[in-house]
Design goal:
The structure is a homodimer. Chain A folds into two domains: 128 residues, Aspartate Aminotransferase, domain 1; 206 residues, Type I PLP-dependent aspartate aminotransferase-like (Major domain) (Aspartate Aminotransferase, domain 2, 3-Layer(aba) Sandwich), CATH 3.40.640.10. Helices cover 35% and strands 12% of the residues of chain A. In chain A, α4 links the parallel β3 and β4. In chain A, α1 runs antiparallel to α7, α2 runs parallel beside α7 and α3 crosses α6. In chain A, the strands form four sheets. A five-stranded mixed β-sheet of chain A has the order 2-8-7-6-5. A two-stranded parallel ribbon of chain A has the order 1-10. By secondary structure, the first copy, chain A, is α/β, with parallel strands linked by helices. Chain A is built from ten helices and eleven strands. At the A-B interface, α1, α3, α4, α6 and α7 of A face α1, α3, α4, α6 and α7 of B.
Chain lengths: 353, 353
Amino acid sequence: MGWEENIRRVVPYTPGEQPKNENVIKLNTNENPYPPAPNVQKILQNFDVDQMRLYPDPEASLLVQAIAETYHVQPEQVFVGVGSDDVLSMAFLTFFHSNKKILFPDVTYSFYDVWAELYHIPYETIPLTETFHINPEDYTIPNGGIIFPNPNAPTGVFENLDTVEKILQNNPDSVVIVDEAYIDFGGISSLSLLEKYENLLVVQTFSKSRSMAGMRIGFAIGSEKLIRYLNDVKFSVNSYTMNQVTLACGAETLKDKAYFETCTNKIIRTREQAKQNLRSLGFVFPDSMSNFIFAKHPEHDAGMIFQKLKEKNIFVRYWNKPRINQYLRITIGTPENMQALFTALEKILQEKE
Amino acid sequence: MGWEENIRRVVPYTPGEQPKNENVIKLNTNENPYPPAPNVQKILQNFDVDQMRLYPDPEASLLVQAIAETYHVQPEQVFVGVGSDDVLSMAFLTFFHSNKKILFPDVTYSFYDVWAELYHIPYETIPLTETFHINPEDYTIPNGGIIFPNPNAPTGVFENLDTVEKILQNNPDSVVIVDEAYIDFGGISSLSLLEKYENLLVVQTFSKSRSMAGMRIGFAIGSEKLIRYLNDVKFSVNSYTMNQVTLACGAETLKDKAYFETCTNKIIRTREQAKQNLRSLGFVFPDSMSNFIFAKHPEHDAGMIFQKLKEKNIFVRYWNKPRINQYLRITIGTPENMQALFTALEKILQEKE
């Protein structure tokens, strides 16, 4: 029918599998192996269901305020969204609005090119170095904006703040977005650069270090000016994105700083142990500062290992894409999850192909 | 700074006030005066908080399945989003993608032109008749898509299905969206037309008749083909929009059909009584089939009444816009809310201006 000629066709992003089988060891979507802060349970139990009949606070003040306090910024510097994907998508729509190409690494979060294409934003991917690092000199060409994750996904590689600041220094005329989904696992946040750079937007999420992927909470911190522009666009799309329960649970979880430290430290320790175990199995990988390791084995095909792990009900992530099709992205689970993985890998590597 | 030249500037939509003062009688945002179905409380109390660490089901199967069963359609015909604003915004992005103007009424939901401008969709508004009705003959000009609410907002006027079907018959080459946010208060849904029209999308919400504005749940039902296109775009923006608690509460509330009938019938009865009371105060209004009445008083300025009600802590909605700046949109609250409103109006109308 003719109506199909008037519509937009996109190739949708394929998220990591969410198997409904509960016996799976799930190391494929960078979820946290530990539950959210215990006080979240009380929030649900005491929630006044009657008030669900009312619209939520469109300014999400409860959560915005809690984030502002946690990160020592003004509430006017905080934007919240339905996961960092919502925050980033709004940021693309708001800040990347020229005819100039935006820049991001060739190996990076797989949504960036999807959003660019969806919103008709021209883009150019900049190859990472041989060791999967960003060379800030590559980001000196004219552009309409810059975005990169730090630590990068799916490599786990962290760039120190000198690199970030060089990019900012060279690009006063572009919004520079640092996507810090994995910053809490040992990296150093670019938040300290906000005082000097009005065009810097730092994006983080509750999905990884705060164990709330299931609740969809992301946020951005930037100058008041940037956040105002972002809110203007968000209010044009949907004024009420954050529901009441989400606001209450999100604000509450930020209060328990000790629990947060304990969980992230456990994951960091498990990761460092996992690096040793993977090395002794013959894997190589860039050093990771995230809650995953991006590893390849010089003698075994990654696609094959991926399949054989799956047969053993262990899910990791694999992309059949240029430069990375010999790598597996392995989320850091509990020590028990990781032990099961190493045992399985040991067997797989011993089998004849 | 130069970066501001590369960004998108929009005039954001201004939502109705959400006063934090609890003594307000809130008849300004078409919320339901009754709480959600009682079983929702149990869902929160028994919710397994540990699972929040995992991403939600990207296909939102639990909720999609419940909607499909409730409306006797296939799950493949159901799309869900973060309130009907999210659903409609995605529908604009997906279905209105030609260089031809889309059409909608001049007096209508105030987000339509905002989304059209945001996504650079050309549009033309078609004047409603003198009595705020849609004349289907006006929708025979070439177009890139059509959208209208039924009942219309903010007028409350319902168009019978003959009108909807005439528009569909004349527009096989456009997607036609019927925005049925207020359909459960006595109107007849266009869902029955889905069998004949592959290009029809019907959008509804849990925010009004199901008392869940605070949880942000909207949905669309259409042909499998339309829904597939819509999901492709949605998965490109954000794969995981519906959080776990929302999915569970939304699916549960659909089960209690008796409670739903009771509440909507109470609101309908209160509305019919309100029509009599408003008439006896001298107000005139198009007949409403929604949970609000769009009324003007021939002898009193609407902006003045709006202000004076506000001073008495009674909030209704007022727009200073062409054609409607002498009208107040009054949400149907409880009988007690409405009695307070009538008492206040009586006083205001007696005062000298």
